[in-house]
Amino acid sequence: MPVITVNWWQGNDRHARKELVAGITDVVTRVSGCPDDAVTVIVRDVDPDHWGRGGHLADESRSRRGQR
Amino acid sequence: MPVITVNWWQGNDRHARKELVAGITDVVTRVSGCPDDAVTVIVRDVDPDHWGRGGHLADESRSRRGQR
Amino acid sequence: MPVITVNWWQGNDRHARKELVAGITDVVTRVSGCPDDAVTVIVRDVDPDHWGRGGHLADESRSRRGQR
Amino acid sequence: MPVITVNWWQGNDRHARKELVAGITDVVTRVSGCPDDAVTVIVRDVDPDHWGRGGHLADESRSRRGQR
Amino acid sequence: MPVITVNWWQGNDRHARKELVAGITDVVTRVSGCPDDAVTVIVRDVDPDHWGRGGHLADESRSRRGQR
Amino acid sequence: MPVITVNWWQGNDRHARKELVAGITDVVTRVSGCPDDAVTVIVRDVDPDHWGRGGHLADESRSRRGQR
């Protein structure tokens, strides 16, 4: 009955979430042997201005470093 | 000082959240013996299109299976 | 498909966890209308020396204040 | 590689989140010895009407008690 | 900088965790486009007697239903 | 009533946890204006072999790269 929570930056669309859920469920069932129906995935889109990295909000870090 | 987090599908209104918080607090104080004031409940409404079950987004699963 | 996480202090036994799970599941199904089988409850026992309250570890606070 | 999650009431602005992220990262690097870049902070703003305390939604508790 | 948390039942060994981390990281980088190094996966083994399902502790449910 | 969760690698002792809780509580009360007593900090020690980074378990990454 695994429960997986994904925290990532907002900006991913429905297609991306479908692929994410399908892919993670596939990995978890393969590794744990549990059936598909037992896997729950909760996707949380986090605004980069609510995400800190290296002591800064992530939207600042990106503009400073040009990185994702 | 228990902290309880509830992840459920969005669509529940204020009345439902009041009942939820009162009911869970009642159970936790009864079982643990701590006072009401020590119990924190955080309610997260999750959009079914951010919730995966059985490898699919939950809004798809519902339409396919007619279930909640 | 609600997922509930309970963080509380360790020291509760199996009987307490059974009551906790049964009671919370009852509240959640009553409020949300979902079936029993759809409710997941994860119980985390936290050592009071890994729990901070008011700026102190909880086992210190208890001895200082004689409270739970 | 510490990951810190802060759940607090919504109403804090960007300036507050910047200070929060900078301050927590500073504490965690000082205590754990890891570099700044290894620290992730996720900030969740919770609506007081999704936060239960003492068996009531927090926006009710505040009006009843005049407290924060 | 995605952060993924997996809650599953204890009993999976190091080899299973390695496969889990590699597989999930692969899915998340493919879907989100972020580099491998940006993905954090935290694995929590939960004792079935701390996991509630359908109102019962999971180790009871298993013995009653002979299921995983 | 902020609730902060810290996930970090196990190996930090009681003294480190005391400093961590005191420091984070100080930051949160300063930024949010809430009193000390309203701040809860939950510290989770994660075994590096339950922590994935860059697709590998963290204890492997460390030996490969000699980093923390």
Automatic annotation (TrEMBL), chains A, B, C, D, E, F:
Gene3D superfamilies named in the record = Macrophage Migration Inhibitory Factor (3.30.429.10)
- Keywords annotated in UniProt: Isomerase
Describe the location of the 4-oxalocrotonate tautomerase-like domain by residue ranges. Answer: 2-57
- UniProt xrefs under Pfam families: Tautomerase
Which segments cross the bilayer? none
Entries under SUPFAM superfamilies matching the protein: Tautomerase/MIF (SSF55331)
Name the protein family. Answer: Belongs to the 4-oxalocrotonate tautomerase family.
Report what the protein is called: 4-oxalocrotonate tautomerase family protein
Source organism (scientific name):
Streptomyces sp. 900105245
**Upper lineage:** Bacteria, Bacillati, Actinomycetota, Actinomycetes, Kitasatosporales
